[in-house]
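Curious: can you check?
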Amino acid sequence: MTASSSPSRWRQTLRLLFHLGRAIVLLLIVAWGVVAVNLELPGPRWWVLATLVAWIALGLAAVAAPLWQPRRRGLVIRLLFTASLVALVLWWQRLEPRLERDWAPDVARQLAVERVGDRVTLHNVRDFEWHSPSEATAHWETRHYDLTTLASVDMIVSYWMGPAIAHTLVSFGFADGRYLTFSVEIRRERDEAFSIVGGFFKQFELNLIAADENDILRLRSNVRGEDVYLYSVALAPEARRELFLAYLDEAERLRREPAFYNTLTSNCTTLVFDMVAKIVDGLPRDLRLVLSGYLPDYVHDVGGLAPGVSLAMLRERGYINPRARAVPYDAGSRTFSRAIRDGVPVADETADVTPGEKTHEMPDAMTGKPTDESAEDDATGDPITP
């Protein structure tokens, strides 16, 4: 009796595990559909809620389908759920990113590029004066750069949600003391806020911001109160140039072909890695590219930071917040950029000009020197409330 009942028990156990696994998969599908419909289904709120109720009811019925009697009823429920899932997936696949929406003011414009040889003209460079996390005076500028004077590359990591999650920015320094920062971000609509979950569900378009450090770094360190760290990156002159041009190519691509932001696969760190990987051979993929708060550890391990300096020392010297807060906005961009680099170890000793070597100069506001580069400012003094 024991021998004959043993296979029966195994069959029952396997059947139970099968139905349990099936129920878990169906519940995950239902949960995915709930988030997708809630975030992306157009129409009035009552229509979205009605669709959610119908989807959840059908999903739970499909989970319980093996218990339905007669069995034909359970089969009908399964077929209805399968048809609904197919319709949901087809609708999801048809969602397309767009260029025209009611964008938040700080992401309303996209970077535009003109290039003639080594001369580059960038339109819609952002240089906002931030008064609070949601209020600023808007300045969109046209700036001119000579690629032969590109002197340095810095990585900035801004921690806004614990030690594992950070925003990555890359700043390029030029021989005349100017810096330009690139930041891969979501392109929010007006009154829309960032959501990690929404980043998985096509809620945001992808955007590439080119901005003055006095705007984009000051916003994070001084206004939002994030912990911001700056690291000098070791790149040969030709690699620096290629990376700068890769950013410009990406900006032009996004102007032609909008794309969705994705929290996991298309974000502020993964896109930068993809650009760098085309320039520097053999870079390994690593979990720290997803957990971007640990990106400095990764770059240090592959030899991309200042040689012979411990990561702990680089972090200590690279913490810009106290220095950034000591410089008023009106002191100007060059004063701000010099101040935040004061004491930061320089990685690339072969640079033609190393801006970090100038960080101990007195601020321009104290010496009477001009504080900023010349730029054609096509939108000054406009208050915004994103």
